Amino acid sequence: MLSKESTLFSAVVAAPFGAIGIRTQDQAISELVYLPPRFAEKDATDKVAAKAQKQIEKYLQQPDFRFKLPLQQVGTDFQRKVWAVIAAIPQGEVWTYGQIAKHIKSAPRAVGQACGANWFPLVIPCHRVTAAGGLGGFGHTDDESSFHIGVKLWLLQHEGVSTYSPVIAPKKAK
User: pTM of the entire structure?
Assistant: First the structure.
């Protein structure tokens, strides 16, 4: 039976850590949300949600799957700049907030805030961004026992990251 909470989404995909809610608007994805297990699966209510549902299911089976989804234009110019760098981090690698900040000539805290404002996790894989000294936060929390940190750990392990040592960021093209 569909839970009342699940009606908030255009689709809900079951995941090993809980579920992923998909919201759509105007033929684009407007938001992806990590959800706890109490959310019931929900079949897509439109073509964009159906496409996202299929792609998320493929990613959950194949961690090297690359998303191709229409995303709404959201965020500030700075956030979009950070998200573009995050989207380019290869599967199986992590970068630190500091590495991204250096890459775009900013500050690690500002990068962390942009990560937390990401409307499209998985598609813009902010789980691949860690603190210099360890895992860092996720979903606006750094409590090691939180649901969101558990999601981050699952995603990194799914992608083959067994340690949280960041790789060296490539030099910026001139």
Answer: 0.86
